[in-house]
Structure formats: structure tokens, C-alpha cells
Amino acid sequence: MKIAWRVLLGYFVILALAAFMLGQVFLEQVKPAVRQTAEDTLADTANTLAELASDDLYAGRIAQGGFATHLRALSDRRVGADIWGYEKQGVAYRVIVTDAKGIVLFDSQGKDMGRDNSRWNDVARTLQGKYGARSTREQADDPASTVMWVAAPITHDGRLIGVLSVGKPNRVLQPFITASRNVILTWGLVLLGTALLIGVAMAWWLSRQLGVLRAYAQAVTAGENVPAPRAAAEFGELGHALEVMRERLEGKQYVEEYVHTLTHELKSPLASMKAAAEILEGELSTAERRKFVGHVQTQSARMAEMVDQLLALASVEHRRQLENPQMVDLRAILLDAIGSLEAKALASNVRVDVVPGDPLSVTGDAFLLRQALVNLLDNAIEFSPAGGIVRCAVFAEGESVRVCIDDEGQGIPDYALPRVFERFYSLPRQAGGSRSSGIGLSFVAAIASLHGGHADLVNTSNGARATLTLSC
Length: 472
Description:
Keywords: Cell membrane, Kinase, Membrane, Phosphoprotein, Transferase, Transmembrane, Transmembrane helix, Two-component regulatory system. By secondary structure, this protein is an alpha+beta fold. It has three domains: 3-178, Beta-Lactamase (2-Layer Sandwich); 225-320, Helix Hairpins (Orthogonal Bundle), CATH 1.10.287; 322-472, Histidine kinase-like ATPase, C-terminal domain (Heat Shock Protein 90). It is built from ten helices and 14 strands. The chain has helices spanning 3-58, 66-73, 121-127, 174-221, 233-280, 286-317, 330-340, 342-347, 366-383, 440-450, and strands at 81-83, 86-88, 94-99, 104-107, 132-137, 146-156, 159-169, 326-329, 351-354, 361-364, 389-397, 400-407, 454-459, 464-471. The strands form four sheets. A five-stranded antiparallel sheet has the order 4-3-7-6-5. It has a five-stranded mixed sheet with strand order 9-11-12-14-13. α1 runs antiparallel to α4 (174-221). Mean pLDDT is 79; it is low at 251-255.
């Protein structure tokens, strides 16, 4: 499992547990909170009514006096109130008055007249001078039929003469409890869904940042010349550290490889020059001396050319991207490169032709592209026989532009095709000419890669074809 999904899973588990625990706390607190509020209201109501009933109870007319008359009239009163979306039509209070012994003297619903209520907590505790309240089912087999009762003492001249109990069915409170729970559940799910989306976004972002670093590491492992990874926050710092580490390691490896290869390549001309120097120490004719002096000069020039080309190749290979890319006309650059090699082509008796066409522009470095084309043209001229023709063409193909250079030489041996772009790998020239430095094609490949393209060399029926492919 990917690390991003593991983070998301852990985040969601923690979130789900927290949501479950908080949901349970809130949901379990809704019912008690509503009932506590209702009990507080009942306590106020009971004490208020107890004061109003005091005179009638003391006078012995609690069941027939004005107090009883007004309470009985409550059953006919229509409230017609919209309380938080709940339609309240009537008064749900039930009022019971007992004497100092707990015997019912008045019941607003007329049900329990004469009953002994002294055993109920609301009456019993009030008669004892304590706060009295209870919750009792009206129907023993129906849990939803509970009624909350709160009692208050009825006193006259400081003496306890009775108890007034106010009851309110809990089913009247249930709509508010249900509505509150629904609101909590709805918003809880909304918050959970929002948190989940945030978690998914975080996991995607984390996966993307790690993916950038992983792709960079894989490209480096494959030997590709890729730019530094673009990541955010700490991932950006990690990407920068990886890039610095890569540059230092590559720089060390690059120098070691180049020193080793250059040392190997310089052994041959140095050995040749040493042999010529030893011969020059002996007795030689003027013609022989000129021959060996010329040989020393040729080998020293070859060594200088090799060092210069090696420095140019190192400069290109160490670039991660073009410093100042611009739109350039590739056909014009090709014609300029052909013009610079006109003298060499004439000396080799080789004609260079260009297929006519419209200007084709690419984004790149004109100087480097010209150097790459000069190298390809130079190879084509050198491998072409006297009287041969080098044909050049520039054309667009999809989202890229290609330059094809065909010569009429002997082609590339099959064993050499996979290695022609390696550093210092070269083949003999026409008519037994000496080998080149073997750096030119490596230089071309590096420039092509820097422009987001590639270089190819294949055999044709008439010779060889070099192709430089660049992104538009």
C-alpha cells in the first residue's frame, strides 16, 4: 500500500473514532438537556401555581374555586404556536393538588380525585421539606408514555397545607429531542465528509510530491539528464538536497571517468610522439627528419583538438537546461553550417544539397544547434567518396522538427551502430584516413538531449543517414 493511502487510512480511522465518540456524547446529551430544561420550567410553574392555589386550598374550595376554574379552562385554550418548526396547539400541563397527607383534592383532568399520592416521590419528598420530582409511565407497557412531575409546597402563614404537582408528558418533548439529534447527525456527516475530502486532498498532494521525487530518482538511476524536481514545502528542500547530492556525485564520477578515458585516448598519440622523438635523436636525412617532425606536429594537433572537443562536450553535458532559449529558424542554421564547411567540401570533391522548403522554427540555442549540425555535416563529408553527394532535408513531423543528412559512403558496420554515440568511439575515414577524436557524435547527442530531442545514425541503401530530432 502506498504511503499516501496509509496516511489517509490512519487519518480517516482517527477521524471516524473522534466523530463517533463526539457524536455519542452529543446525542446522549440531547435528551437529558431537553428534559433538564423542561424540569426547570416545571419547577418555576409549580411554585407559581402553588402560590396562586394557597388561598383556595386554605379556604377548602380548591376543587371549586377560581383557581380550579381557570385551570380546567386550559384544556379549551388553543395556543397555535410554531416553536422551532413544531406546531403546538394546546397546553400539555396537568395539575394535581393534594392535602398535607398526600390525598388528591384536585386534578385538572379529574382522573385521580381522592387517591393517596403520598407514596409518589414528588409528593412524599415535598411533604418532607425537600425538592420533589418523578417520572412515571401512564401506561406500564408503553415506555413512551412517561410523564415528568415536579411538585411545590403550598403554604399558608408559613405552615405546609398541601402539595401542588405539575406534570408534562415526555412525548411532548420528543419532537425537539428528535430534531436536535437530526441536526447533530446531519452536520456531523457534513463535517465528516468535508474532513474526508480534505484528507483525500492531503493524500493526493502527498502522493504527488512523493511521485515527483520518485520519478526524479528513477530518471537519475536510468542515467537521464533531468532538471531538479519541483516540489513544495519540505519536499522541495528534499528535492534540492537530492539535486545537490546528484551534482556532486556526478561531478566526481564525471571527472574520474573523463580522466580515465582521456588518459587512455592520449596514450596512443603520446607513444607515437615518443617513438618519433627517439628516432629524431639519431642520424636522419633531411627528408626523414621532416617526416617525423610532421608526425609529431600532427599528433600534438590531434591531442589539442581532443582536449578542446572534450571541454566543449563537458560544458554541454553538465547543463540541465538551456539558459536562454529562443525561437530560431532551423533551416537557416543548417544553411549557415553548410556555408562554414564549403571549403572542406570542395577540397574533398563532395557536393552538399539541401531540399528546398519553408522556414521551420524551434525553441533552442542557435549556437549549440549550429555546432551539432556542423559535426554531422563534417562526418558526412569525411565519409563520402570523391564525387559523392551529401543530401540535407529539414521537415516537421508531429510536434517535432527533423534534420536528415544522407551521405553516399560505405555505411556503418553493424557492430559499430550501437556505439557510434559513445565518447571516443570512432571509425576509420575514407581512403585509410586516420580516426577522429570520437567526441563529435557524443557532442551532438548531448545537444539534442538538451533540446528535448535525440540523435540517430542508421544505414541506408546508398550510405548512412544522420537524424537530429528536436521538439518544436
